[in-house]
Specification:
Structural class: alpha+beta
Order of helices and strands: HHHEEEEEEEHHEEEEHHHHHHHHHH
Helix content: 40-55%
Number of domains: 2
Largest sheet: 5 strands, antiparallel
Strand order of the largest sheet: 2-3-10-5-6
Number of strands: 11
Strand content: 15-25%
Shape: elongated
Length: 440
């Protein structure tokens, strides 16, 4: 039976079809991530922190939790054409511009934060702004006044004076129902901003952000970063790391085993002693030392992993090659004068490839989990957004203690699916290529 005919037997196993579906979904996810967010852009977004993600809420759950009746508020951003503006000249080059930020708030929970962002243009005298809050029941609450810089922001939620006046945090006090302070007052709110410009050429562009408690399909972390970036880019990184390590190490084991079994003597003895030496050396502590003392680059760790494991799993394949070297077709190759390396690479190794395929597939999740383990230990690549890095950040920020379960469950679920997909396919291939397992 040819290799292709054996691979076609995969269709007879439902578990293999399910694994192919999972692996296909991961591959599509990886391709989409690379096309949608280029490598350099992904690194820039992940390293930027709050500089780029200022309009995202902090520690926000995914939007899909509202499908189950959570009624968590989404972020509301008002700027430009969404804001009504009135301008009035007060003489001597001074004018007053009034901005009306009106929006409907119909959620059952309070927003997480409130903030104003300003972009102002002036020569000498900066603009002065006054803020007034209007509630759906007609109440007016003076928020405060301040002088605006060229690029400025006012975190309303962090104003201690306003908090003292309201008796609670501003994001709750401004939205609370007077009859039931623990609940929100649903309806239309308006923030009135009066800006006084003291120069004819002066301009001001304000923006109101009412931060919600949900964001996107993946949520956000403590630095407001969209976790979708890390979850998407974790797929190509995991696939590349796992497949590259599995291919490099499996092929090295295969070739070295074949050479040792064929030549025997000193060559086989040397390979055998190196294998025993590798078996007593712990891999994870060595990779931890590399990450602590040298570099945490994921690609350097991958290279170290491949080099360190060149001799590791030779003994298993060596026994099979020792049997294969006595096969009739090998004797025939010897008879017509084939060279040693021609026999090894043309006749010996190709006949054993079916044994390599299941082991190669089963090795992929091992290396994916190894990379995630290093990241969870704090030794992951600081530049790349990976699934393990997301879990590490969640752990270091006490996500489970704070009830931010999505932060850990999402990358953990993707790691589990990766392991499940490749493991089920590997077990099926092992059953197909290993005759002793077909009757089980």
């Amino acid at each position: 039976m040819t290799l292709w005919m054996r691979l076609r037997e995969v269709r007879r196993y439902p578990s293999a079809l399910a694994s192919l579906f999972i692996i296909g979904a991961l591959v599509l996810m990886a391709v989409y991530a690379v096309i949608r967010i280029p490598y350099a852009e992904a690194i820039r977004l992940w390293r930027a922190g709050e500089v780029i993600w200022l309009e995202n809420p902090r520690n926000a759950a995914p939007k899909w939790i509202n499908w189950f009746g959570a009624s968590q508020p989404e972020t509301i951003i008002l700027a430009g054409d969404k804001v009504r503006k009135e301008s009035e000249s007060l003489g001597s080059g001074v004018r007053r511009e009034t901005f009306y930020f009106s929006f409907d708030f119909l959620y059952g929970n309070f927003p997480s934060e409130l903030a104003m962002f300003f972009s102002a243009t002036y020569t000498k005298t900066p603009p002065q702004v006054n803020l007034l809050w209007r509630t759906p029941d007609g109440r007016e609450i003076a928020v405060g006044s301040r002088t605006i810089k060229a690029s400025d922001r006012y975190i309303i939620s962090g104003d201690p004076v306003l908090q003292k006046r309201l008796g609670r945090s501003p994001e709750e006090g401004l939205f609370a129902n007077p009859q039931a302070p623990e609940k929100t007052l649903k309806g239309r709110y308006t923030l009135v901003l009066e800006a006084y410009l003291f120069e004819e050429s002066a301009k001001i562009e304000p923006k109101l952000v009412v931060y919600g408690r949900v964001h996107g399909w993946a949520g956000t972390d403590h630095l407001r970063r969209d976790l979708a970036v890390a979850l998407l880019w974790g797929a190509p990184i995991a696939m590349i790391f796992g497949i590259a390590a599995a291919v490099g190490i499996s092929l090295a084991h295969f070739v070295i085993s074949a050479i040792g079994a064929w030549f025997g003597g000193v060559v086989d003895l040397l390979i055998d002693r190196l294998t025993e030496l590798r078996m007593i050396l712990p891999l994870l502590p060595i990779l931890i030392m590399v990450g602590v003392l040298w570099t945490r680059s994921i690609w350097v760790l991958l290279l170290v992993l491949i080099v360190f494991n060149l001799i590791g799993g030779v003994k298993t394949y060596r026994a099979m090659f020792l049997q294969a070297r006595e096969a009739p077709y090998i004797e025939a190759a010897r008879a017509y004068g084939a060279g040693n390396f021609r026999i090894v690479f043309r006749y010996l190794i190709p006949r054993m490839i079916p044994v390599l395929i299941p082991a190669f597939v089963l090795a992929i999740p091992n290396y994916v989990f190894l990379e995630a383990s290093l990241a969870i230990l704090g030794l992951g690549d600081p530049l790349l957004p990976t699934w393990g890095k997301v879990i590490y950040d969640a752990y270091s920020q006490g996500a489970l203690y704070k009830g931010l379960y999505y932060w850990i469950l999402e990358p953990a679920a993707l790691l589990m699916l990766t392991g499940l997909g490749f493991s089920m396919l590997g077990f099926t291939l092992d059953r197909i290529f290993n005759p002793r397992l077909r009757t089980l």
